[in-house]
Each structure stands twice: as structure tokens, then as C-alpha cells.
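thread from #wetlab-drylab

HS: before we spend reagent money on co-crystallization trials with guanosine-5'-diphosphate, can we at least see a predicted complex? here's what I'd submit
DV: go for it
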Amino acid sequence: NLTQRLGRVVKTLRGQARLTEDNIADMLREVRMALLEADVALPVVKDFIARVKEKALGQDVIGSLTPGQALVGVVHRELTELMGGQATGLNLATQPPAIILMSGLQGAGKTTTTAKLGKWLKERQKKKVLAVSCDVYRPAAIEQLKAVSAQAGIEFFPSHAGEKPAAIAAAALDYAKKHYFDVLFVDTAGRLAIDSAMMAEIKELHALLNPVESLFVVDAMLGQDAVNTARAFNEALPLTGVVLTKLDGDARGGAALSVRHVTGKPLKFAGVGEKLNGIEEFHPERMASRILGMGDILGLVEEAQRGVDQDKAQEFVKKMKSGKGFDLNDFKDQIGQMRKMGGMSSLLDKMPAQFAQMAQQAGGAVEDKAVGRIEGIINSMTPGERSKPELIKASRKRRIAAGAGVQVQEVNRLLNQFEQTQKVMKQFSKGGMAKMMRGMKG
Ligand code: GDP
Ligand code: MG
């Protein structure tokens, strides 16, 4: 897969003195195959390779960077660009209710995403949210939205099989206006494949509602097919953004790469689990790190070995090698180490994507302040809790939150993200991380 291939590329280039036409060509061949294997559309790949080549050849390898790192840096920046650069949130700037129309194939995750985003808007932005289903072909689909809306704590506007989608939408809009809702989600019927009746229906809904957000929901696991679907919906509707679901089940990222390229529309959210909190704002930069796999953890360790605290760095490498025992104590040490190495931004650049994400989410910003908050939370834990985070249940969470002066949710977020990181660490240790570490140190 893409992660492994690019990992191999980094390894091959490590130890080479300079970039030559030859080794760039080798690397580009690997990247090209990796992207094709990850199901990225061919024109996207061609474009991408051309850009990386141009940038890489013009690039001076400076300072402490190895040529491999420099090239991976270029690939990372270009991947980020390809996925749209900056993160863009939901646009609710309109006369309320802000209407959000959900479109996509059956099973893409429209209904689930409706509830996830509703919960998100309610909890984070204190919005009053109404959801309605125009999926009149499957009574179970309406029931499903009702159930997940209740779970999400948002209001559900009832509809029934056999009613006309346009009539349902109009009634829901009327209700939303009368009761001063901030946001109205309109969930729609999908089909198993692109189908002209479905397109006509969603177009009609769009024309009627004139939504401020028209979100195309697509299953990341569809790979190349996601691209074709995205193209069809983008031609039929003035989409404002894309939600890529089931990224938890797809490590390849191919769909993320090409959907943006094909539609020109921003990827706004990523679905990362079946549960209603399994959603994240889509950050192209983080996705690029994820596609590249390990961030530059090797660079990080190297730097630690060169400059700061040999023993601790060694210990870290040992733990990584063994693939077990990576706990919040280690994470805390890492933060302390990296502080010494020159602050937050250089630190985040070098951390594996999952770490960076954890730091960003726990603090909400890429700043030393964010790290301070994480450190504060971890400091409020006992050593026992740090080495066995699964011990931390509700009452401990409250104590820790109070100790760190943060909300319990922030502790939860840190723990969730940490759990994810641990999983990634385990995968690394199974899939060659140990080998890479040995190679690097030799
Ligand atoms: P719809 O037909 O487009 O409304 O799709 P649903 O919302 O009913 O979702 C289809 C299936 O995908 C359900 O089983 C969801 O639980 C699942 N699902 C949706 N989003 C995600 C996600 O981000 N991750 C995972 N693992 N499953 C998801
Ligand atoms: Mg549905």
C-alpha cells in the first residue's frame, strides 16, 4: 500500500548523499505506482508526479535534512496541496435555518453523517438542529434517521414512506422557520449506482431548498469508484463540499486524493467510525501525513539522539521496537524532549500524523499552548493511570479534568486519540517499524 511503499522510498533514499536525476526517477516511479495502487485516478497521478518532479529538482537539500527527507517533504507538501491546502469548515452564514443537503449513493453514510454533524453543531456551536429524511423508498431509512437523531440530541422531523420528497422538504423547512431552528439537515435517498431518477430527485430538492451547504457523502473504501460517483454528482449539483466516510476502514487514502482533484470541491469532513463522534474536520495536511504513514518519526528520533537526551531516546526506540508498552508516560516524555528541541511547530512537523492530530485536537490549535494543555492533563494523572489509561473511568476523568483546569471532554478527546495512536504504534511494530529503526541506527 501507499504507506508501505513511501516508507520504503524513504528508506532507500536515506543515506544517499545527494539527489540525482536517477534517484529522483526511482522515487517517482515508486510514488507513481503507490498512488495507482491506492486507486488514485491516472490523470491525477500524472499531474502529481510532474509537480513533485519539478519541485524536487529545484530543491536544495539544506541543513540537517537528508535527501530522502527533503523529497518526502516535497511529496508531503504536494499531497497537501492536492487535497486542497487549508481545512474549510461548514458555512452557515445565511438567514437561518441554514439548510444542509446531503447527497450520495446508498450506504455512503449520509444518514450517519447527518447525525454526526448535527451533534457536532449542537455541541460545539450550540446550534438548534433539525433533521428530516426524504428517503421515502425505504421506511427503515426514516426510522434510522429518527434513531440517530435522538442519539445525537437533535430534533427529528417525521416523514413517511410514499410521501413526495419535495413536499417533505418543504414541510420541514416551514417547521424549521416557525420554530427558529439554526440548521436544517435534509437527508436524501441514495441508490446503489448513479441513476437518472435519483439525480432528478436530488436536483429538484436542491432547486427547491437552495441549500447553503450541499454535501456529497462518499465512502472512502470505494477507491476509484468514488471518483466516478463524485464526478456524476458534481455535474448534477452545485456541491459545496465533500464528506469522506469510513476512513477508519481505508488506510490508502486514494479517494481523498482524487475526489478533490476531480470535483474541485473541498473535502470538509472525514468519517472515522460508526459512532456519532466518529467525525473530524478534514485537514489536508494531516491527511497527507497519514498517507505518508509515519510522519517523520525517524527524523525525530535521529534528532533526539543527536541533541537532547540519549537515554530517553534510546528507551523510546526500544519501546517502539518491541511494539508494546507505549503509554502516556512516554508521550509526556516525548513532549518534554521536543520542547527542548525547539518548540511546537518543528515538533508537529516531525511527529507521526496521529500524534500531531492528538496534539491539535486536544488543544484545538497548533500552538505551544495546546501542548501545554496536553501536558497539563497528563500531569494530572497518576503514574499508574498514565501507564494504564484504560483505568481512567468517569470519576478519575473528573478529577483529572479538574486538576488540569479543563473540561472532561478534553480529557476524553486526549484518551481517544491516545488509543488511536497506540493502535498505530502496534501496526508499525508489526509492519516493519522495528526493522526500519534498526536500519536507521546501524
Ligand atoms: P446512507 O445510506 O448513505 O444513509 O448510509 P448510512 O448512514 O446508513 O451508513 C451506511 C453504513 O455505513 C452504516 O452501517 C454506518 O454505520 C456505516 N458508516 C457510516 N459512516 C461511517 C464511518 O465513518 N466509519 C464506519 N466504520 N462506518 C460508517
Ligand atoms: Mg440513509
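DV: The chain is about 60% helix and 10% strand.
HS: ok that's useful, forwarding to the group
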